[in-house]
Each structure stands twice: as C-alpha cells, then as structure tokens.
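Structure ticket #2291
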Amino acid sequence: MKAMMGREDFEAGLRQIGAERYHHLHPFQQRLQNGDLSKTQVQAWALNRYYYQSQIPVKDAYILARLRTPELRREWRQRIIDHDGEEGQRGGIEKWIALTDGVGLDRAYVESGVGILAGTRFAVDAYVHFVQERTLLEAIASSLTELFSPTVIGTRVRGMLEHYDFISKETLAYFDKRPVQAKRDSDFALAYCLDNARRPEEQTAVLDALRFKCQVLWAQLDALHFAYVEPGMIPPDAWRTGEGLRDEGGAA
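Resolution: structure written out below.
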C-alpha cells in the first residue's frame, strides 16, 4: 500500500477480511452448527477449543503489559477478568470446562492438555507468539476477529441446541455473554486501530494482523476436520473415542 486509506475505506477493508476469511465459512464450523457432527466429533471440538480458550487471557496479559496509560489498561484488563473470572463470578474458561463436562469429557483430562491436536497447539501458540513479538498495534489488531463473532455465535448456539440432544442451554453458557463482550471489545480495538494506524505501512500491518488471526482460527478447524472428519486420520497422541471421558459419561 502506497497511500493512506480514508477511515471509512480502512474499516471497510477490515470488515471485508472477515466476510471472506472468518472461520464461520469453514466446513467443520458449518457441520457443527448444522448438526452434521457425531458426538465424538463435537467432543473433539470442545476439547481442542479449550486450549485456545485457556490461552486468551495469556495473550491479553502480554498486551496489557505494553499499554502505557491507566485508562487503556483498565479497558484491556476487563478481557482477562471475562475469561479468568473473579471471586463469585465464573469466567469464560470455567464456563468452557462446563461445556466439556456437558459433552462427557473428564475435567482433569481436558485441563491437562493431553490429546490436543498438534495443529491446534501450533496455531494457538503462534497467536500468543505473534502478540508477544509484533507491535502493540498489530497485537491489538489481531483481536479484531471479534468484529464478526456476535452473529456467528447466535447461529452456532441455535444450531447446536436444535440438532444435538446431548447439548443444553446450560452446556453452552459460555456463549451467553460473549456477543455483548465481543461487541464491547471489538469497538475498542477497532477505534484504537483506526486512530493509531497513521501511515500506509501501519494500515497494511493492521490488515495483515487480522488476516493472520483468521488463519489461526481456520487452522484449528483444519486440524479438527482432517483428524476427525475427512479423511479421519487421527495423529499420534491425539484424543481418541473412549479416552478422557467422565466415569459416568460412558462411551461417545
């Protein structure tokens, strides 16, 4: 990019990335919300997604440490509270564990990280490293996938409740507050990027950071799809049916 984009064109460019690259378009995501996965495949999704959820407050802590004003730190700190929780309030990680409980996975097994696909781990770790190593502007820009999540969450929840008899509203409690939280967080991150990308190369970096984050989310679903759907080649050390289930859960 050789010339600055206007604010409206810059925002439109960011939203276009979501329209073309966000993981709601992935075949595994489509199968999940359309009821086309088996219980085993939903369990694999819940287990692997836990690793991503567990690392969100880690990457947010790296960003928090780089913010230079109390106002910015207060704003970003709320993200960590949302996921880690606080006294008397369950956070997103605990709610995700409730989801894995709900689909019959053993809590200790989930939290151990045993059985996570290598592709999941590599993608999530790459995201954390990106936030550590790139500029603060790029790190914040990588969170902009939250621009696209509120509508997708509603579709996912409706589809799972409609199609899977082993899923309940309580199982999916993680998603209850996420649309509001994601809207709040993405409004802040979008304004920050629009205000602070002041040179053409900075606008390019913001766009590329969002593309990268979309790749992180897409790669996680690639790993699930090729291990558990087509062609169903589960790699060594990855979770298999019958492993890590609650004693009372039975086989998937």
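Closing remark: Residues 35 and 164 are 7 Å apart (CA to CA).
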